[in-house]
């Protein structure tokens, strides 16, 4: 049997040798290639096993190992296809390397390996963020997002330098050139640099966060994301606006979410001039009493907890956290067509829908008080006098 198999191989080799010779490939090279493919296949399996073992040993990647390995098969397959191709070219060229080809494959290795590092790091972060509570860790979502973007930029920059190195570029000359052209580059990219420092200013000054309702430079909406260059805002008519972060360093920002207790309710209640003084006084007292007893109106007696128990800032805690409990009800002005009663107070809730419900209930109760005291709401009116008729009336009286 062994002789038959040996005879078959010799006969097969003799038949294909002339055909392979036309392409500069001998039977020995072909056997080397087949053996190499088998070895690379085995090495690939060992590589995956070693990668899994290494990820499980590193605390940062331990919980994300399964997800990482699910995202890497295609990239790993591509890596070993490139390795196979490189070795085949090496064997075909009589086990000698070609400088240009070697550089090309080294650049491919660098790109694939950087992408593997990028996938591993970002998958691990995604898994961590799925169970991450920024409030418990005292971190802003925006800081986390910008930190991830900076980390990915560093990975990309390192990958670019490695690719340039394998391409034969003198990195020392490149880095020194960057120093010489740094001023020109900074001048050309002054807007980008301004936006970057604007990002740092927003993140570390706690001006606003994701989800906050802000108003700046005539634009108003909810903050979607704070990026490295721009902040995106979703307006209330559902448009998406991108604002360069450099603007936030030079413009006033109004943040409606930086308040804990108190959304203002202000109204002027006008009653007619033929109202009795006592009725107006009674109405003012009853409105004030109604607001003091209203369960959804903030008063000086409203109980709440301060978010910051210890602070190094010498500022009012109420003003720092956004607490308003002012309650004012007074006879205010003698207007053209009415006597105005000022009602100035704050709802306990700062949510828009809760505020609307509270204000509606207060208005209903005020209407009842006005009616109970025999008062009438005034409206703009104009009295016209006919001077000619008045003169005739005076003459008739004489």
Can you tell me about this structure?
This protein has about 400 residues and is α+β, with helices and mostly antiparallel strands. It has three domains: about 20-130, no CATH class; about 190-255, SH3 type barrels (Roll); about 260-300 and about 315-398, 2-Layer Sandwich (Alpha-Beta Plaits), CATH 3.30.70.100. It is about 60% helix and about 15% strand. It contains 15 helices and nine strands. The relative contact order is 0.06.
**Net shape:** elongated
Q: Could you name the CATH class of the largest domain?
A: Alpha Beta
Please estimate the helix content.
55-70%
Report the span from N to C terminus: 153 Å
Main sheet specs: 5 strands, antiparallel
Number of domains: 3
Number of separate helices: 15
Which structural class matches the secondary elements?
alpha+beta
Overall number of strands: 9
**Which second-level CATH architecture of the largest domain applies?**
2-Layer Sandwich
CATH topology type of the largest domain: Alpha-Beta Plaits
Radius of gyration: 39 Å
Question: SSE string, helix = H, strand = E?
Answer: HHHHHHHHHHEEEEHEEHEHEEHH
Low-confidence stretches: 1-17, 19-24
Quick overview of this protein structure:
Helices cover 58% and strands 13% of the residues.
What keyword list fits this structure?
13% strand; four-stranded antiparallel β-sheet; 15 helices; 398 residues; alpha+beta; SH3 type barrels; 3 domains
Write the layout of secondary structure elements.
Layout: H1 2-21, H2 27-57, H3 59-62, H4 65-71, H5 73-92, H6 99-130, H7 141-166, H8 171-180, H9 182-188, H10 190-205, E1 213-216, E2 219-226, E3 230-234, E4 240-244, H11 245-248, E5 253-255, E6 263-271, H12 277-293, E7 297-298, H13 317-321, E8 328-334, E9 339-347, H14 352-372, H15 387-397
Helix pairs in contact: 2-5, 4-6, 5-6, 6-7, 12-14
């Amino acid at each position: 049997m062994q002789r038959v198999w040996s005879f078959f191989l010799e006969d097969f080799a003799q038949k294909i040798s002339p055909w392979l010779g036309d392409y500069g490939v001998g039977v020995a090279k072909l056997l080397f290639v087949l053996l190499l493919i088998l070895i690379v296949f085995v090495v690939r399996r060992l590589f995956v096993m070693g990668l899994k073992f290494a990820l499980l040993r590193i605390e940062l990647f331990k919980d994300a190992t399964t997800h990482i390995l699910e995202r890497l098969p295609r990239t790993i397959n591509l890596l070993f296809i490139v390795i196979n191709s490189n070795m085949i070219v090496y064997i075909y060229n009589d086990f000698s390397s070609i400088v240009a080809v070697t550089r090309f494959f080294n650049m491919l290795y660098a790109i694939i390996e950087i992408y593997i590092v990028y996938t591993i790091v970002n998958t691990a972060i995604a898994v961590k963020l799925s169970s991450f509570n920024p409030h418990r860790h005292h971190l802003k979502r925006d800081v986390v997002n910008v930190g991830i973007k900076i980390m990915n930029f560093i990975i990309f920059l390192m990958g670019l330098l490695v690719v340039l190195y394998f391409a034969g570029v003198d990195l020392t000359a490149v880095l020194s050139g960057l120093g010489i052209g740094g001023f020109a580059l900074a001048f050309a990219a002054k807007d980008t640099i301004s936006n970057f420092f604007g990002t740092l200013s927003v993140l570390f000054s706690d001006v606003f966060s994701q989800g906050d309702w802000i108003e700046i430079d005539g634009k108003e909406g909810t903050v979607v994301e704070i990026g490295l260059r721009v902040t995106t805002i979703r307006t209330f008519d559902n448009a998406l606006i991108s604002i360069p972060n450099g603007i936030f360093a030079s413009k006033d920002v109004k943040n409606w979410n930086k308040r804990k207790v108190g959304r203002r309710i202000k109204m002027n209640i006008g009653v007619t001039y033929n109202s009795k003084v006592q009725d107006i006084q009674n109405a003012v007292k009853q409105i004030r009493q109604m607001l003091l007893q209203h369960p959804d109106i903030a008063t000086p007696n409203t109980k709440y907890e301060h978010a910051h128990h210890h602070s190094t800032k010498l500022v009012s805690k109420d003003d720092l956290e956004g607490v308003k409990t002012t309650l004012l009800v007074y006879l205010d002005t003698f207007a053209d067509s009415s006597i105005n009663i000022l009602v100035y107070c704050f709802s306990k809730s700062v949510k828009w829908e809760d505020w609307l419900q509270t204000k509606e209930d207060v208005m209903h109760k005020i209407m009842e008080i006005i009616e109970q005291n025999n008062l009438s709401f005034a409206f703009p009116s104009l009295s016209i006098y006919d001077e000619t008729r008045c003169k005739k009336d005076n003459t008739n009286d004489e």
